[in-house]
Design a protein that fits this description.
Blueprint lengths: L12 E4 L7 H12 L5 E6 L4 H12 L2 E8 L2 E7 L3
Parallel strand pairs: 1-2
Antiparallel strand pairs: 2-4, 3-4
């Protein structure tokens, strides 16, 4: 799974929510977005499969840009650019 690796988009912020289940990963991502400036990139690491549904919905509602989703051995890595 993945929408491609974008090496030009290096994360400026990292959030590791491995071991936490929804709604924690989404709530923590939402909190992180409020502290970030336009153009900054959040790397979110999670292992709850629910984030594959819930985080993209949050990103779409908040107007940010999902750069990529990578999966490796049950762990998901999201890169999200803050657009506002």
């Amino acid at each position: 799974m993945g929408s491609g690796t974008h090496k030009s988009q290096q994360p400026t912020h990292r959030l590791n929510v491995i071991g936490f289940f929804c709604p924690v990963p989404v709530a923590e991502a939402k909190k992180a977005f409020t502290t970030m400036a336009k153009g900054e990139v959040l790397e979110l690491l999670a292992d709850d499969p629910e984030v594959l549904h819930d985080l993209p919905m949050l990103i779409e509602r908040s107007g940010h840009r999902l750069i990529s989703i990578e999966e490796s051995m049950g762990e998901y890595c999201f890169l999200v650019e803050v657009t506002s």
